[in-house]
Amino acid sequence: MAYFTGFTCVGCGAPYQPSQDLLLCPVCHSLLEANYDLSALRDHLDRDAIAARPKGVWRWRELLPILDVGAIVTLGEGDTPMLRCDRLAHAVGVRELWVKSDASNPTGSLKDRSITVSATKAVEFAYRVLSCDSTGNKASSVAAYAARAGLDSVVFCPDDTPIPKVTQSLFFGAKLIRVRGHYSQINAMYRKLIHSGRVNWYDCGTDNPFRYEGKKTYAYEIAEHFGWQPPDRVVHPANGGMSIAKTWKGFREMQALGWIDRIPKMTLVQAANCDPIVRASLAGAVTVAPIEKGPTIASALAGADPGLLGARALEAVRESGGTAIGVEDSEIIEAMTLLAKEGLFIEPSGAVAIAGLRRLVASGRADADESVVCVVTGSGFKDFDAIASRVTIPDDVVDGYEQLLSAAVAIG
Ligand SMILES: [Zn+2]
Question: Could you tell me the distance, in angstroms and rounded to a whole number, from the CA of residue 188 to the centre of ligand 1?
Answer without folding.
Answer: 20
